[in-house]
Design brief:
Chain lengths: ~600, ~600
């Protein structure tokens, strides 16, 4: 049975030492979050994740969800009680606006709790996670009347949320969607169509389910400019806010999937269901993007979360398992064999995972702080800059964290040898669960296109310029510190490749857009490595400072400094292969005739 | 439902045009295999795989194997009939010695049929596949008396084989094994112990199961020098060769695994079971290595096989699925959207898979021909050289083909978007099945150590010298051909990195063996890329020749030439990152204290 311990100490080091949390105390909601309070919140969340959610992970996978003849869906044993504990702890509304019952605390803290929660039980975490994303979209775009009905109940967790985009014939290409919305006399709409792959579309955890549904109002233009967003509740709220009549939105079947068995993935049938427009007609994609961007960050965090729990279990196994002798001679001659940790190739796998995990945890906080800044800063320029950087980094994190999260789950499984392939050890579940994160909320190839095709060019490249300025300022500021040299050199190399790749797109992809498409995936990973390298530089500097200030922290800080060097020596060099591939362009791949595939 | 079509035309191109099959007609068993005969054999095998085995793949996964209270195991519906068809076709004994009922045909042809079979149904193929490996070990090391009892029945497929190495506390480190063998008065041994992860350990396909079991004879030295190999049949053969008394070898349980559900993975309990020594006492590992080497090549082929069938299905989906428009403007304006094949990133994924598949198919044939030469050539020097090259390439192929086979299954799944995650499409099964190939028959980290720690140094580096000489001779021979330049340049670059890495080990790993361990995995992949690059050069030359000789082949040959360029432009550059990692050595990774993981 796998175990999980939330990395609270590492999180606190990042918040306090690397990002100097107290510098944000001017932002609404941050003021009361002294280090003690933050630690208490994280510890409380950690306890729930470790004690309640984690034990249900493997049983939930085995049992899965069951759809009944009446269209109802039962979640695995223990999920109702766990969801109640989650709701009772106030975790869903942690960062939601106090206007509707939220706690108004920093989004960054909510994201960290979600990270712990996804490590403990990814399938479970999707129920509250999607609710939080739906809350964000409703908060930003719905009318006050809709807000006052839906937000308090969703923030309290008694109602949950879903996002309904995909249809059988269209996923990425939403312009093709066929679900129709017919205006009714009372200002509502009758929604008709079929949506597939709807996570948490039907379940037994909450008294109502609030579907956010993309549909085309009769007579609206074809393509993406004729799509509107609707709230379609499972039960229509009564005037007093209690769930009333059953709406014509039902689960037609649930999918049999590779993983996340404990999350119900539904085919949703809307048969003239009553829906309420959110935001402007035909601007639904715009409104849905609020939910999608938040969900994409959430999915990125899932990649990190699985990588972390997989690492923890692989280390525990490697420590306990005695097999073979060190190449340099027995390390534990008194035992029948040495532990797996003496073998360089085992260390390679573990350190590749952890060198990602620590930097990715930092990048998560960096991005979430920008999310908080973009919404809460009193300074408009700061809000805009943070929004730029968050928008730039979201596809990078979604693509890179989920690709590496999956690869790392595979590596952690490999440490177990044959036992990694056996269900009872739980490692193969991490692999199966992690796999979906590369696909949903926009497959990673789409993230790469979003980065290269939209985010780079947006506002004249303002976001990218800001990112380059920040990293270069850091290099300059620390250049005189000789201890920092191995870290800064690595970052400089990655940054150089990233700049060359960007330049190559500017020179070669304007006239030939396939050159951008052909290099987009490599560019996303090149960007990710560079951003992670930047995080390692910041971690290294903070670790050096903490070490000299506090001798008791030396061993832990030295470990971080070693991992950072490992990252620079062994992971950063991949940027050159990415650059080489980008610079070959699209000619060869586009020259293969379609019929010859 | 996935489909499969055996790539017979591609195989024939490799056999006839790239490797000039007729040059081997002097070898025993090759004489009668004219191009027509070879094609007929491949077509007949392909039909069985496509029509009988492939339809059982997804149902076998869903149903799995069932162990009953009496220790018996039932395979999924249809497997008995399929196994009978396999046996009736004479496929198990295709390459086995005619002395005991085999057909004595080239091992290369048997390996190709196994490739098709593993594409169609990997879990099924393990039953006959392990039997073939056991036949090889018995043929090479058992006494004539044992051979005459076991070989005819195993070659006919009425009895199947297994390999019993792993115990709960030891997998890689076989020196720790505890299973005991006590000599009996009749010259047999009483075998007692528990083995785990025994593929095909118990099933209902054959009338008897022949376990090859590693055990320690009482009083034998500790460690690997005290291990002997035994035949332990499920039923003790009567004098007339029919199965007699039930032996005390039974299946205690079967494992619940990530994939290959249709293969029964057993805990085998030996409770004083009667066993018969194969080869010399205490030299069991040596004898088992015959089986392991053959099985490792077989597992490498599984990696390729899954990659091939995953590619085929991903292409079919990409062709049919209409989603989005080409970046350069609509390609099918009459349809609601273009096919996925217009998107560069989709092409990237598909071409990465196929650029591997075609070169890996070539390397498989190159290696299998060396296996045939090493056993059948009349020239001792030729036998030795082939044995050297096969021994060198076996860990490379096992490690690289199975890593890439898995990665490619993941990529093919990614092409399907959300549908790739749903069981009914079959893509997620390919991923789950492919995963085990990276683990069993020696986890891939062990292959890398075998390569770097043993195969490079063996006989003063004779094998590596031969490989370098062959590739350099090819470059020299074709250097004047300008059309070959893009291919040779890529190979030269890879070869240069491989030579630098080898030199680095010579200079840095003798005194510090951890430097070899730390770079072994990268070295294995660097070697694999170089060997695949060499294959692409040979394919390219043959394709150019075929194209000018036969205009009707031009389109297919041009596709190969394009794929070869793709490989050189986009996959070969990875060698530089591997080299950079190798050259960083072990210091950083070994300096992290074990307690800080």
């Amino acid at each position: 049975m796998p175990t999980y311990q939330a990395p609270v100490a590492d999180t606190l080091f990042l918040l306090n030492d690397v990002f100097q949390w107290n510098r944000y105390s001017n932002l609404p909601g941050f003021g009361d979050t002294t280090p003690d309070i933050v630690e208490a919140i994280l510890q409380e969340g950690a306890r729930l994740c470790e004690e309640v959610l984690q034990p249900l992970n493997i049983t939930g996978d085995k049992e899965g969800c069951v759809r009944h003849a009446d269209g109802g869906v039962t979640t695995p044993k223990g999920f109702k009680e766990a969801y109640k504990a989650y709701v009772d702890g106030g975790w869903i509304g942690l960062a939601a606006t106090a206007d509707h019952g939220g706690q108004g605390l920093p989004y960054t803290l909510a994201a960290l709790i979600n990270q712990y929660s996804a490590s403990a039980n990814m399938a479970f975490t999707m129920y509250p996670g999607l609710t939080q994303s739906a809350i964000a979209a409703i908060t930003e775009h719905a009318s006050d009347a809709l807000k006052s009905i839906y937000l308090p109940r969703m923030i309290a967790g008694v109602w949950t949320g879903t996002m309904n985009l995909t249809e059988p014939h269209c996923g990425t290409d939403l312009g093709l969607l066929k679900t129709r919305a017919v205006p009714a006399a009372d200002g509502s709409y009758a929604i008709t169509g079929q949506k597939i792959f709807i996570s948490a579309g039907e379940h037994d955890l909450a008294e109502n389910i609030v579907h956010l549904v993309l549909a085309r109002i009769e007579g609206a233009p074809a393509g993406t400019r004729g799509i509107s967003l609707f709230i379609v509740p499972k039960f229509l709220p009564n005037a007093d806010g209690t769930p009333g009549a059953r709406n014509a939105a039902s689960c037609g079947s649930i999918e049999h999937k590779m993983g996340i068995h404990a999350n119900s993935t539904c085919v949703m049938n809307f048969d003239g269901a009553k829906g309420f427009l959110i935001g402007e007609a035909n601007r639904g994609l715009n409104a849905m993007f609020v939910m999608m961007n938040e969900a994409r960050l959430g999915v990125a965090i899932q990649g990190l979360a699985i990588s972390d729990v997989a690492y923890q279990n692989a280390v525990a196994y490697a420590r306990d398992r005695l097999q073979g002798r060190a190449l340099t001679g027995p390390k534990s001659p008194e035992k029948p064999a040495d532990s797996l940790l003496v073998h360089p190739d085992i260390r390679r796998m573990l350190m590749e995972i952890r060198a990602f995990n620590e930097a990715a945890s930092a990048l998560t906080i960096w991005s979430c702080l920008h999310a908080d800044m973009s919404r809460r800063s009193p300074d408009e320029k700061e809000r805009q800059k943070s929004d730029d950087l968050l928008g730039l980094m979201t596809p990078v994190m979604k693509g890179v964290f989920t690709d590496r999260g999956f690869d790392n789950a595979v590596k952690a499984q490999q440490v177990f040898g044959g036992h990694g392939y056996i269900a009872e050890w739980g490692m193969e579940q991490f692999v199966r669960d992690a796999r979906i994160a590369m696909i949903y909320e926009g497959a990673n190839g789409i993230q790469a296109l979003d980065l290269v095709g939209r985010k780079l060019r947006k506002d004249g490249g303002r976001a990218l310029t800001a990112f380059f300025a920040e990293t270069q300022a850091f290099i300059k500021e620390n250049g005189a510190n000789a201890e920092m040299t191995p870290y800064l050199k690595g970052l400089q190399a990655g940054l150089g490749d990233l700049q060359k790749a960007t330049m190559w797109f500017m020179q070669n992809a304007m006239a030939k857009p396939d050159n951008a498409g052909a290099g987009s995936y490599d560019y996303m990973h090149l960007f990710g490595l560079t951003a992670l390298g930047y995080m390692w530089c910041r971690i290294a500097r903070a670790a050096m400072e903490k070490k000299s200030a506090d001798a008791s922290a030396a061993a832990a800080m030295d470990a971080k400094l070693t991992l950072g060097r490992f990252f620079m020596e062994r992971m950063m060099p991949e940027t050159s292969a990415h650059l080489a591939r980008i610079q070959t362009g699209a000619d060869t791949m586009m020259s293969l005739p379609a019929e010859m595939f």
